[in-house]
Amino acid sequence: MTLKIRIDDSAPPYEQVRAQISAQARSGVLPVGYRLPTVRGLAETLGLAANTVAKAYRALETDGVIETRGRNGTFVAAAGSAAERELASAAQAYAQRAHRLGVPEPEALSAAREALRAAYGG
Question: Residue 122 pLDDT more than 80?
């Protein structure tokens, strides 16, 4: 298992790096704990600026796909762990706000369902 990235003219290079690493991590091609190349190393391999790869890595870390362990390197994170934590935190904040506003649970759930339908285009 090795990281395979191809850059073409279809989208900004950082987005291609982000999307391809994300897809490989989520599909299991890159397993949890897989150590990614350094920013400079990957940039050199792909013929990109280091800032381009750094931007992709930051986006992947924000999405919870990868995690940086200081000087130890950057690794594929447990699937969705950061995203799941962020979602749980947002749900908790919503529940507390609905309760403070005195909104009954069925109405709060209905409002959340409508917001999800709108967000997912349904």
Answer: no
